[in-house]
Write a structure and sequence with these properties.
The protein has 301 residues and is of the alpha/beta class. It folds into two domains: 107 residues, no CATH class; 171 residues, NAD(P)-binding Rossmann-like Domain (Rossmann fold). Helix content is 42%, strand content 19%. The strands form two sheets. It has a six-stranded parallel sheet, sandwiched between helices. A five-stranded antiparallel sheet has the order 3-2-1-5-4. A hairpin with a 4-residue loop joins strand 2 and strand 3. Helix 4 crosses helix 9. The radius of gyration is 23 Å and the shape is elongated.
């Protein structure tokens, strides 16, 4: 990794750390089996779901560190006994971490980060930058691409920023299963990038900012210029809801939720080979009025 991870910084700042791991989960629980967090005398990294359960675990982990113990186990019912109503039961393992344990955890974090799905935001205008801020908080690798250096310079989100004269190159070289959100300053470029993403036939999500009118124009353009390329899997408008709010941050929130719903569903779809999630979302988007503007706020219809 090009920079020190937040986890490695946490370990460097805390000499004594306990790892908390959900080793067994039955019934309803805030987090799944295998979830981990790290606890020191004065700090925390990660979460096992919050609430009374997490507070109990934090207290026990800190007591374990204070006593100098190596490990401990907690069996906790998630019911009225602890003031929660999940109804499940969890087994939690507490382990005092050695230097080698910390190094292994950082390595595992880097490996996990490398396997995250990629989200390509093609266009660094107001909406593109707002989307970068949202996706930076989510478990994805976010790449912001634009040919305009001045627009990229205004992005403050901790994402991969790429200044490209030919942004299609990033579409062509993206990993299989990537998500593409097309929101550039130029309709012609929008069409080129959206068609390039669709032609891959392996994208988890292809979204084009615009309206139903813009979608119709894109479909017509595909028939004439792309040998009849189907736009069935295209999501346009993106972030389509009943809301007509055009503020970039509001749009970005809807799009982030839309893309994450698809990426989460794809974990099941990849097993069955189904393309239903994105196909159904495309139908929904095409039947809603959407927002008739581009990334710069220009009317599209």
């Amino acid at each position: 990794m090009a920079h020190r991870s937040k986890l490695s910084q946490f370990f460097a700042s805390n000499q004594k750390v306990a790892r908390v791991r959900l080793t067994k989960v039955s019934g309803s629980s805030p987090r799944d089996e295998g979830t981990e967090m790290y606890v020191s005398a004065n700090g925390l990294f990660g979460t096992i779901g919050g609430g009374r359960l997490e507070q109990m675990v934090i207290d026990d982990a800190r007591e374990l560190l204070a006593r100098g113990d190596i490990r401990g186990v907690m069996a906790v019912p998630l019911g009225p006994e602890i003031g929660q109503c999940c109804g499940g039961h969890v087994t939690v393992q507490l382990t005092r971490m050695s230097k080698r344990d910390c190094e292994a955890a950082v390595k595992a974090e880097a490996s996990f980060a490398d396997e995250l799905p990629c989200v390509y935001i093609l266009g660094a205008g107001h909406v593109g930058r707002a989307m970068a801020e949202f996706f930076a908080l989510l478990p994805v690798r976010t790449i912001l691409v634009d040919s305009r250096a001045d627009q990229l310079d205004m992005c403050t989100a901790p994402v991969d920023i790429r200044h490209r004269a030919i942004p299609e190159v990033d579409v062509f070289n993206a990993p299989s299963g990537s998500a593409f959100i097309v929101a550039t300053h130029d309709h012609g470029l929008d069409f080129l990038l959206a068609s390039a993403a669709l032609e891959r036939a392996d994208a988890s999500y292809v979204g084009l900012i615009g309206s139903k009118t813009k979608r119709a124009k894109f479909e017509s353009w595909c028939r004439k210029m792309c040998d009849g390329l189907s736009a069935e899997d295209l999501v346009c408008p993106i972030g389509a809801t009943a809301s007509a709010d055009k503020r970039p941050q509001v749009i970005a929130s809807f799009v982030a939720a839309e893309v994450m719903a698809i990426l989460s569903a794809d974990e099941c779809a990849n097993t069955s080979g189904s393309r239903e999630p994105i196909a159904e979302l495309s139908k929904v988007a095409n039947n809603l009025p959407g927002r008739s503007f581009d990334a710069a706020g220009t009317q599209l219809n």
